[in-house]
Specification:
The chain has 115 residues and is mostly helical. The protein has a domain of 51 residues. The protein has 5 helices and no strands.
Length: 115
């Protein structure tokens, strides 16, 4: 079989050749997906806690829920704007994400210690 057939991804019988997926890469993707899933759960828990605490401060109303939801969406928009800047693109995204998650966890620990 000529090398050109192998390079084009064709098997000797004309059946397309599909290389086996890299187990290491699939494991990394699975771990990363799990981490992002847990991060999303943490964000929803924070939002729920903030909603309950704002209910204590402002009363359980539509305005308290709107305040929390608009703050959450503003944070998403601000994070997107910062991530779109050219300086941040040079950084490694997963390391930056890990640092930001640790900063959120540290701020939660500090706020719990002072209350």
């Amino acid at each position: 079989m000529p090398d050109s057939a192998v390079n084009k991804g064709a098997h000797a019988l004309g059946v397309p050749f599909h290389p086996r997926p890299n187990l290491y890469a699939m494991t990394r993707i699975a771990i990363l997906s799990g981490i992002l899933f847990l991060s999303g759960i943490g964000a929803l828990i924070f939002e729920t806690v903030w909603l309950r605490l704002s209910g204590l401060a402002f009363g359980n109303s539509v305005w308290a829920a709107a305040l929390i939801l608009s703050s959450f969406m503003a944070g998403l928009a601000l994070g997107n704007a910062i991530a779109a800047s050219s300086k941040v693109r040079r950084w490694r995204p997963l390391h930056l994400y890990a640092v930001l998650e640790l900063a959120v966890a540290a701020s939660d620990c500090v706020s719990r210690c002072h209350s």
